[in-house]
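Curious: why these numbers?
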Amino acid sequence: HFDLWEMTRSTIAQRQRIENSPTHDDIRRMHYLMEKCLDPIREAWGNPIAVNSGYRSHALNIAVGGASSSQHLTGEADDITTGSLGGNKLLFDLIQQIGVDFDQLIDENSYQWIHISCRYNGKGNRKQVLHL
């Protein structure tokens, strides 16, 4: 379903020549996020889901204005989209219904995209649902 390329590619990193290579630990966390959250979501959705922003190096996180404590920095978060606001709203609702063990599920900017995170090994996942 999902792969590391989707989770590490960044047009901003390419344009600004920012290194965005994850460490071995980051890759392990990204695989966990794919296995426990993203792949079950894509399977339940049954249609394409794109990653807008996945893993971010420290330099890339600064360039995009990310929070200094962002889970994108550790490979534990992705911003995803179906390609439409209506689709994103339906996906947001579906994620809650299928019982994915997420840490945070965030409707960003009236469903412009959905942020989903999962702590490695599920330790301490808060199941926070937020609308920003």
In short: Residues 24-45 form the longest helix (22 residues). DSSP finds five helices and five strands in the chain. The helical segments are 4-8, 11-16, 24-45, 58-63, 85-97. The longest strand covers residues 77-81.
